[in-house]
Amino acid sequence: MPITKLDRWNQHCKTIQGKQNMTRRANTPRPGALTSLDYKKFCDTCFEMWIRWRDGWQSVVSGRAYPWDYTKIHAGHYFGRGSLNTRYDPRNCHAITSQENYWQHLGKQDEIIKYHDFMLRTYGQETLDELREMSQTLSHWSIPDWMDKARELHTQSFAYNPRETKSRLDAVYRTIKEKLVLELIIETITKGETNE
Questions:
Q1: How far apart are CA 162 and CA 25, in angstroms?
Q2: CA distance to 15, 54, 91, per residue, from 124 (Å)
Q3: What would the pLDDT profile of 162-176 be if each residue is shown by its tens digit?
Q4: Hey, CA dihedral for 68, 71, 77, 81, is it positive or negative?
Q5: What is the pTM of this model?
Q6: What integer pLDDT is reported at residue 24 of this predicted model?
Q7: What is the CA radius of gyration of the chain?
Q8: How do residues 11-35 score in pLDDT, each as one tens digit?
Q9: Nearest alpha carbon to residue 83 among 40, 135, 47, 150
């Protein structure tokens, strides 16, 4: 019996459907499959929420306040986020407006000088030198290091405002895959707390 076009089409559809099922299974994260990038995103979200709450949703540079507006108040790092040693150091990060953060990254001298003056008044030259040295030191975190930092930052931000923490995490993790990753991270870090 010869193969018809309809048979070929049905076979093609089965092949496509099988590949889609395999892709769907492959995209479902498993606890052991969480990467450092998954933890980094989670840590960044928790830390940035905490910084905004700590500083009262008000820029430390200009004094402008935008309560509960994540787009207008940023967690601005004095030394960039590239170094893990200072990325989550509360002395290195403060609430600043999105415009100040933007201008600082572009190298606008006025904004850099204002932020520098704030840092000098608040912490002094010794602390700035310590932060500079820390920011220039390379470090690499393993998955357990990321888990510990995620646990610490989640606990810290949850203590400030549990409802808003959950709401913000839900807003950042939008897709189904991202929500599964979020559930796994929270499950992993809370499981670690109960075992200790």
A1: 32
A2: 66, 20, 11
A3: 888 888 888 888 888
A4: positive
A5: 0.77
A6: 44
A7: 23
A8: 665 666 555 554 444 455 555 578 8
A9: 135
Q: Which single residue is written with the structure tokens 């040693």? A: 85
Contact 173, 179 (CB under 8 A): yes
In sequence order, what DSSP letters do the residues of 31-54 get, joined into one string?
A: GGG--HHHHHHHHHHHHHHHHHHH
173 contact partners, CB below 8 Å, separation of at least 6? 179, 181, 182
According to DSSP H, which parts of the chain are helical?
5-27, 36-54, 84-87, 98-106, 109-123, 125-135, 143-160, 162-172, 176-195
Positive or negative: CA dihedral 147, 153, 158, 161? negative
Residue 11 CB-density burial (10 A; 0-12 exposed, 13-18 middle, 19+ buried): exposed
In this predicted model, which residue has the larger pLDDT, 160 or 47? Answer: 47
The structure tokens listed for 158 are 């949850």
Is the CB of residue 135 less than 8 Å from the CB of residue 99? Answer: no
Termini Cα distance of the chain = 68
- For 6, the token pair is 């309809």
CA–CA dist 109, 124 (Å, integer): 20
Among residues 30, 46, 35, the alpha carbon closest in space to that of 184 is found at: 30
If you search the block for the tokens 């290195």, which residue do you land on?
Answer: 92
